[in-house]
Structures are given as structure tokens and as C-alpha cells.
């Protein structure tokens, strides 16, 4: 199937590793032009070289701290200058601090708000004029906690859920501009973030990381962690021309972990 992504211009947030990198990789393979972003320039340079070797779409990068609005404005303007427009947006951000409600300070709450929710709002606001020109697609990456709160992740449970409300509301407001917006929540995908959480839980329970991984995998019907590429497959479909009628929806990529209907 031709997904119709060749020469489309995409901005992928937090794409130097993990889920963002996987999405960027698949888009480049499909012929899209991709702007990478993140805070670590050395990682961004490495990913840029890797993706350019795929001989797909154009690849550029912009060092960006998405908790700072001025840097978001610069990122969006750089993307437009590099590619001559923006048609696809993937909002993504690193996971917030793990811990219980009693362990979180005002600073923890404020930082997570700025990183995991306000950044999405700001990025959509800045890219909207470009997306409106010919219709576009937005995917907001959240977490499986949008359906079932994860113990010990109070910050993620709070702000990831708010992303769903944002996406659902914007799906109605932006429909007249032919902009489709959806939310995708990853379950336990094999990324550095999940490895970090496994280490935290292993330390708390006094077991090895391997034992913790085995316990977590046993709770997943498919019996394993997902691969970033498997997550990227769905995101790429939602960004593609093959998706012409799905908007305002929430999808989980979790191997069947969440039991709710």
C-alpha cells in the first residue's frame, strides 16, 4: 500500500531516541521529510546520519528544549524554512518523574505540566497556521495510563490523561480545516524509559531487573514488550493518506495489557 507520505513535511518532537526516533525512521523510509528535535545535539546528529543512509526523505534537526516557548517557536520556524511547510506533527515528550503523590513538590508538578502538557499545547498552536494551509495530521503520544492509571506514576497519570481531552476537543475545532488529530498511548514498549521504570520498581521490591521484567511481561497477554517499530507502525498509518476519516480517537499499543473496554 502506498501511504502517500512521499515529500510530506513532518515535525517529530523528542525524536533522538525511543518512540520518536522509531516514528521518524519509518516516515523517512516512506519518503517524508523529517525535522528531528531534542536537547542532545550529539544524539540528533547521529540519528540524522542514520536516517540519511536510508535514502528516503530529507532529514534535518533542531536542538530544542520544549519546556521553553521561545525554543518551540524557533523549532517550528526552522522546520518551515527547511522544508517549506509543515503537514504532519507528532507531539512527544520524555516521561515525568516517577513517584507517589506524597513525594511530589510544586516544582515537580510545574515541570511535568510544562513538559508533558503545555509543550503539546504550544507546539500545536505554533504549527497550526501551516497545518491549516492544506489540511494536516497530528498525533499526540501519551501513555497507556490514559485508560488505566499506573501505580507510582502520579504525574504521568495526570498530564497524559489531559492530552486526551485536548485531542478530543481539537478534533472538533479543527475538523473544518481538514486537520485530523489522534492520541496514541504506548504500553510497555522496549525503550530506555521502560528500562528505567523497571529498574526503579526492581529496587523498590528488592528483586533483580530481570525478575521485574519477567513479572511485567507475565501481565501482558502477548507475553513480551513491544518494539518501538511496532508502535511507529500505527502512528505512521494515522499520519498517512490511508487515514482520511479517523480523528479524535485514542489508541493503545500495549499487547492487550489494559483490560478495560
From TrEMBL:
Species whose genome carries this gene: Peribacillus huizhouensis
Record keywords: Oxidoreductase
Keyword rRNA-binding: no
E.C. numbers: 1.1.1.100
Name used for this protein in its record: 3-oxoacyl-[acyl-carrier protein] reductase
A Pfam family hit: adh_short_C2
InterPro entries referenced in this protein's UniProt entry, alphabetically: NAD(P)-bd_dom_sf, SDR, SDR_fam
Name of the top EC class for this enzyme: oxidoreductase
Record-stated family: Belongs to the short-chain dehydrogenases/reductases (SDR) family.
Any one Gene Ontology molecular-function term assigned to this protein's record: 3-oxoacyl-[acyl-carrier-protein] reductase (NADPH) activity
Amino acid at each position: 500500500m502506498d501511504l502517500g507520505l512521499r515529500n510530506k513535511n513532518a515535525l517529530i518532537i523528542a525524536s533522538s531516541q525511543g518512540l520518536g526516533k522509531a516514528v521518524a525512521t519509518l516516515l523517512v523510509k516512506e519518503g517524508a521529510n523529517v525535522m528531528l528535535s531534542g536537547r542532545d545535539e550529539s544524539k540528533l546528529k547521529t540519528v540524522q546520519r542514520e536516517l540519511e543512509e536510508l535514502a528516503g526523505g530529507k532529514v534535518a534537526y533542531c536542538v530544542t528544549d520544549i519546556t521553553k516557548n521561545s525554543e518551540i517557536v524557533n523549532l517550528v520556524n526552522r522546520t518551515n524554512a527547511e522544508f517549506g511547510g509543515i503537514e504532519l506533527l507528532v507531539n512527544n515528550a520524555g516521561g515525568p518523574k516517577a513517584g507517589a503523590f506524597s513525594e511530589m513538590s510544586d516544582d515537580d508538578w510545574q515541570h511535568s505540566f510544562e513538559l508533558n502538557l503545555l509543550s503539546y499545547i504550544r507546539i500545536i498552536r505554533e504549527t497550526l497556521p501551516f497545518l491549516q494551509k492544506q489540511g494536516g495530521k497530528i498525533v499526540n503520544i501519551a501513555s497507556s495510563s490514559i485508560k488505566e492509571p499506573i501505580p507510582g506514576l502520579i504525574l504521568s497519570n495526570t498530564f497524559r490523561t489531559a492530552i486526551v481531552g485536548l485531542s478530543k476537543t481539537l478534533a472538533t475545532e479543527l475538523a473544518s480545516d481538514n486537520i485530523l488529530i489522534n492520541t496514541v498511548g504506548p504500553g510497555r514498549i522496549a525503550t530506555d524509559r521502560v528500562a528505567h521504570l523497571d529498574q526503579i520498581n526492581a529496587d523498590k521490591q528488592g528483586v533483580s531487573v530481570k525478575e521485574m521484567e519477567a513479572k511485567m511481561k507475565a501481565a501482558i497477554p502477548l507475553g513480551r514488550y513491544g518494539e518501538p517499530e511496532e508502535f511507529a507502525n500505527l502512528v505512521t498509518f494515522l499520519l498517512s493518506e490511508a487515514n482520511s476519516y479517523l480523528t479524535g480517537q485514542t489508541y493503545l499499543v500495549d499487547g492487550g495489557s489494559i483490560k478495560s473496554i
